[in-house]
Amino acid sequence: MTSRLAFAAQIALALSIMLPALATTASADPAGPTCIRVRDIRSTSTPDDRTIIYWMKDGTKLASKLDSACIGLSFSGWVYAPDQNEMVCSNVQKIKLLQTNSLCQLGPFTPVAAATPAAASH
Asked: For the chain, what is the HEC assignment?
């Protein structure tokens, strides 16, 4: 019986630590994190140290503004940390810069409008 009480106390302690962190994550985006399948990503680009553009196989583009500037992102390679085999989720996923090992967190995914032909010719 004592073993069960100790286990229940450990679970209660773990939940008391984890629940505030989950509430903070959910509050960053009222709808919760948006996830995209890795296999649906055609390529990415990094126009600056705070933005990752996802070019999707269906022709759409999504942008993720990082929580803060990730110095070197626009010219350094990066990987997901931890490596995600199937899904990349906004407001949760971190990336790691290969040259500095800096960790940066993705922000929300927002659609990027396609450039009109007139705008693209400038």
From this structure: CHHHHHHHHHHHHHHHHHHHHHHHHHHHCCCCCCEEEHHHEEEEEEEECCEEEEEECCCCEEEEECCCCCCCCCCCCEEEECCCCCEEECCCCEEEECCCCCEEECCCEEECCCCCHHHHCC
